Automatic annotation (TrEMBL):
InterPro entries: DUF3945 (IPR025222), DUF4099 (IPR025343). Residues 287-340, 369-417 form the DUF3945 domain. Residues 424-435 have a biased composition (Basic and acidic residues). It holds the Pfam family DUF4099. Residues 474-483 have a biased composition (Basic residues). Residues 146-226 form the DUF4099 domain. Residues 436-449 have a biased composition (Polar residues). This is DUF3945 domain-containing protein. It comes from the Bacteria. Residues 459-469 have a biased composition (Low complexity). It comes from Chryseobacterium fistulae. Residues 424-483 are annotated as: Disordered. Transmembrane segments: none annotated.
Length: 483
């Protein structure tokens, strides 16, 4: 097969070499050549025949990075990308290679057709079929939408930020991919007569003039669910879902305020800022497999409609079985886990900064100093275990790491640069604390019973025997100066 795909390599005219795409419809086994994508996301294609003068096939630069970015964008715009297999070939050989490929497909066995995946092109040059369209890919493999030189660093400087600082905070990668920063970023706004400091999430967006603008996503105390959002009026069920899980749970029609276009979308709540985020339903990508569980069409449809899906028997990276609810999140742009289907415990950074001393045991914060704990860390942290965290950044932008433990008695987070064992030692109550606890809860008093050696009865306030009374009277006399 390899020889048949590449045997027509001789150029027929001298011009810059480019590539084009062949497409195999996996349902019809039809091989065709790609022209492009229409406005509805449907693939435009033509049979492999001699090209007419007015018939323009897709033509892309054959260099790796340029093709990777092009194909990633192309693939993401397709309405049904999983229905097709794509192959990159020289534009000179497109017709002959397409005919050869069609002959091969017509007579190949299912096992031989499976070998075609070795030649298939996938987004981000990920040519491992096992990694295709799985939940683990989420946003990590998205191509870069922006370059560092496109960022308005002069504006960033007004916020006390620069490229070096953002790189140390691990924020640049998400920005360049077109996402919001994964954590809250501390910024300073100097107004001349006043200086304001706040925590925000940052994102880059292309303005009407084509310039890349920096957007600040500030923290809200709570989302405003009483007003309409892009033309949608929230129902009581919508409000309940957004508050409890962060996802509204259904697809609704939203209105683009600039064009009045009706856009079916899902809505989620940014759990760090409480900002409402909408995402086009047509862009939703649902994985074929989640942690070892192969999804059927009904399960995929549930997720495509924005609903939650409970899965049992998934396998963690450690090889352990677990159950969880999964759901598409508009803010993260991928299917996320909702352990126990309860996200109330994911407190915003605002509550962490402003109300940390008022947390109850049921309100264990998931964000520590701008760093959001992953699900595994959070479960241990919530259970009172000591957790190692890295990626923290001090006020000067310097990275550091350490150990944190949630103190259920004080409802505060204890931090230490040292090993967790030392942190536990530091967290032990002092002798003075033990004495005061005994006084408050058992009725002890320092004066009446402080010299009694054996344990006292509950609520005992005076010596109960002659022996205890003798012990209490044996008070050490101060030493006098010897003359």
């Amino acid at each position: 097969m390899e020889n048949e795909l590449i045997k027509h390599q001789e150029p027929i005219e001298l011009k810059p070499a480019t590539d084009t795409l062949l497409v195999l419809n996996i349902h019809t086994n039809q091989v065709e050549m790609v022209k492009g994508i229409d406005k509805d996301g449907n693939l435009q294609k033509v049979p492999p025949k001699e090209k007419k003068d007015n018939e323009q096939l897709i033509s892309v630069d054959k260099h790796g990075d340029i093709f990777s970015n092009f194909f990633s964008n192309f693939y993401r715009q397709l309405k049904n990308p999983t229905h097709f297999n794509f192959f990159k070939v020289s534009e000179y050989d497109a017709i002959n290679t397409a005919n050869d490929l069609q002959k091969y497909v017509d007579q190949a066995s299912p096992e031989e057709k499976e070998k075609l995946k070795d030649y298939e092109v996938l987004p981000q040059h990920n040519n491992n079929p096992k990694n295709k369209n799985t939940m683990d890919n989420n946003t990590d493999n998205q191509e870069y939408r922006f370059q560092p030189e496109q960022i308005d660093w002069k504006t960033m400087g007004k916020f006390g930020l620069n490229q070096e600082k953002l790189e140390k905070m691990n924020a640049m990668d998400a920005l360049l991919r077109g996402f919001k920063t994964n954590t809250l970023i501390p910024i300073t706004i100097n107004l001349g007569t006043a200086v304001s400091k706040m925590d925000v999430r940052l994102s880059l967006q292309t303005g009407d003039t084509g310039q890349v603008a920096v957007h600040l996503h500030g923290i809200r105390k709570e989302p405003n669910l009483n007003n309409t959002f892009l033309g949608h009026q929230f129902t009581d069920e919508d409000k309940k879902n957004l508050k409890e899980t962060g996802n509204m749970g259904r697809v609704v029609d939203l209105v683009n305020p600039k064009t009045d276009e009706i856009i079916p979308s899902v809505i989620s709540r940014d759990r760090l800022t409480n900002e409402l985020v909408a995402y086009r339903a047509e862009y939703m990508k649902i994985p074929d497999e989640i942690k070892g569980i192969r999804l059927d069409e009904h399960q995929k449809q549930t997720l495509l409609e924005g609903g939650p899906l409970y899965l049992e028997g998934m396998t963690s990276k450690k090889g352990e079985l677990f159950n969880a609810t999964v759901q598409f999140n508009a803010d993260k742009r991928y299917v996320e886990f909702l352990f126990n289907n309860n996200q109330n415990q994911q407190q915003s950074q605002y509550h962490h900064n402003q109300q940390q001393t008022h947390h109850t045991a049921q309100e264990v914060p998931k964000v520590f100093r701008g760093k959001e704990l992953d699900d595994s860390q959070y479960e241990k942290f919530k259970a009172g275990q000591t957790v190692y965290v890295d990626g923290l950044t001090d006020a000067k932008g310097k990275a550091y790491q350490g150990y944190i433990t949630f103190n259920k008695e004080t409802s505060k987070t204890d931090f230490s640069f040292n090993h967790s064992n030392k942190l536990k030692e530091e967290a032990k109550p002092t002798e003075d604390h033990k004495t005061q606890t005994a006084v408050n809860t058992q009725g002890k008093t320092n004066e009446a019973t402080k010299n009694v050696k054996e344990p006292l009865e509950s609520k005992q306030q005076q010596p109960a025997s002659q022996q205890q009374e003798d012990q209490q009277k044996k008070i050490r006399k101060p030493r006098g100066r010897k003359l």
